[in-house]
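Input sequence (202 aa), recorded before submission:
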Amino acid sequence: MAQEIETFDIKTFEKNKTSNRYTFLNSKGDSVNQEFRDGYYIEKTKKKDSKYSITKVFNESGNIEQKGEYYNSDLHIGKFEWFDEKGEITEIKNYDQHFTFSLEDVLNYLEENNIKEIDKSPTGHKVTITLWRTDSSKLSEEDPIVWTISYGLVPLVLKNNDAIFMGVIKITLDGKTGEEINKQYKRARVDTEWQPFEDLKK
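Predicted structure, token format:
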């Protein structure tokens, strides 16, 4: 039995596009962003009330070539799949490989440590969180597997003079155990290199 090929609805896109883009809500209330760029149709579906999204890439004929899931638009999660002209999977890349301390565990760590995004903090600054990790699909079991968290801008108070600065904090977690490996900070418009967290007042 022939593999059913997932296709892009070119006709609907061409009818509704503006500057090669078309955005709409699907039947589940998810936000769907479609565009034509560099010879490919790209469809990004952001799940309703969620930071998870699925990106699909289709060729000029509308046949699928690539599919994968993201967290917060830029963090690859789970398995990414590549397809041939018959719609059959030719390659799978598992971004969760070797990570026994999962994304869900990292999100729990953030909650337990009261690390959260804020549109406007009491200091008037926006606090954002960035997550990234080792691309474990390129590594062996012996290579270091880590999560990296950075967040800011937040107030930083130095031990030696009680001076207060706005800055960013970076935390490195073991990708297998979740253990805190390193914690550093960088003052906005002051530090060019990451500084040891021990310099700060708790």
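Checked by second reader. The chain has two domains: 10-94, 103-199.
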